[in-house]
User: What shape does this take?
Amino acid sequence: MTRTSVSRRVTATILSMSLLTVMAGAAIAPALGIIKNHFSDAPALLIQFIVSMPALLIIITNLFFLPISRCLRTRAIAIVGLLLYVAAGAGCFFVDDIGLLLVFRALLGVSVGLIMPLSTGLLAYYFPPEEQARLMGLSAAMNQMGGVVATLLAGLLASFAWNYAFLVYLLGLIALVMVWLWLPDAQLGSTNKRGVPFQPRQLLKFHPSVIGMLLLMMIFFIFPTNFAIIASRQTSLSTQSVTMIMVGLDVVAFFVGLAFGFLMDRFRKAMKYFAPVLFLFGYAAYLVPSVAMVILGSCCIGLANGIGVPYLNTIASIKGGRNSATTVMPLLSAALYFGQFISPIIVTPLSKALFGAGDFMAPYKVGILLCVIFLIQVFATRHFQSLPPENGGDSK
Assistant: This one.
């Protein structure tokens, strides 16, 4: 199948996998309090691992994606990943032991580690560079939609019982059927000469995008881990209002993803700076204690996330070409989840060290400092390099 003959069904199938990847951790977040009450005797750290465990296994699986792609064709990888996704995700419904629950969550991470490089890498494999900005935007939009749907649906299911929230992973069956019917059976790893799990030269080649994704995710995840506390102490917003603002952030990012192709064409040279600058404005807005500034800051954060992820995916896929699924996309996926995982580990102690334990705004102040570092990284690695105009982005 040539890239010019890729059907809409194939495109929809690839995008359906993007809908699922964010659900690894986000889907269970609304039910975490109920789960904690059910496992009241379990250490708090194990309860936190229910959300963070998939991220660790996603990172490890991504680093081994190249040799996996040499052994299995794309349809086989996708089917194995989606079967494991449904079995491990929804299988937690039948589990009443915290240890076994964490095993299932680890297997869920393996499944997303198989799916995620395909959800972006196949767009680079089947489509020419001039189409990738639009498609990476759609992929990011589907990712945001998955977060909204999963959060709302899991919260509704959790109202019946703690374990019902895990049934949200049955949504993977839709993508599984689409993959079975329509995904072409390509051999991605066959174009790579070496099948080693990790090649340092790939990191050297794509380090601007990989480090950029790491910084972007570290900065973004300061928002959801601290917003409820900061908003309640700064304003008179109710819990329901705080929840709606957080969901609204995903909605903003979704619409930005839909419009990303247009934005990339219109603001090609300036696009590289949008995410760090919007993050900077967003966290700075929270320093002003008013409902209007909280809403404005949240919109800026949503815009930054909605632009930053597809931008990094687009420029990396253009540089990686048809091999992106087995070279740069696993690295970007690993950086994305590693950024999520280490964000609170770095930000929390740094906030206390720089601003004191009594400053509840300290995490967002650290966010401002990280935004400055992100802006410097963008300027240092991209300011003097650009793709030809027809490709619509930067080279790294």
